[in-house]
Amino acid sequence: MSKVTLNENGKILTETIEDVTMPFDYSFSNVNDFVHSTETQYEDLECLCLGMASHIEKLQKALEDIKKHQVIIGGEMAQKGTIWNIANNALTIN
């Protein structure tokens, strides 16, 4: 069973599962508040980093799948399409 922490407006800020507390989502404001909280321990930051890395890997795979699908349905012209370019640009690390 999980435990959640709410702000004064009832928005979920953190979720604790099996004694591990993490931000409820990876929005900048939630992560920033979590990182700078006086209650956050080093181990919590390690879990946050690993959780975000896992989430990033899933997003990268989804973007690669989008690109592959666009090539399958659009052939070589897919690389000139908007969806392919959005996925490709999102995967480019500056």
Structure report:
- By secondary structure, the chain is α+β, with helices and mostly antiparallel strands.
- It has a domain at 1-40.
- The protein contains 3 helices and 3 strands, in the order E-E-E-H-H-H.
- The mean pLDDT is 84.
* Structure class: alpha+beta
Strand content: 5-15%
**Alpha carbon gap, first and last residue:** 40 Å
Overall pLDDT confidence: 84
Rough outline: elongated
Q: Which quaternary structure do these chains form?
A: single chain
Strand arrangement, largest sheet?
Answer: 1-2-3
The major sheet is characterized as: 3 strands, antiparallel
* Approximate helicity band: 40-55%
The DSSP helix count reads 3
Order of helical and strand elements: EEEHHH
What integer value in Å does the Rg equal? 18 Å
Tally of strands: 3
In short:
By secondary structure, the protein is an alpha+beta fold.
Looking at this protein, list some descriptive labels.
3 helices, 54% helix, alpha+beta, 3-stranded antiparallel sheet, 94 residues
Question: What's the arrangement of secondary structure elements?
Answer:
Elements (H helix, E strand, L loop, with lengths): L2 E4 L5 E6 L2 E4 L4 H8 L6 H33 L7 H10 L3
Antiparallel strand pairs: 1-2, 2-3
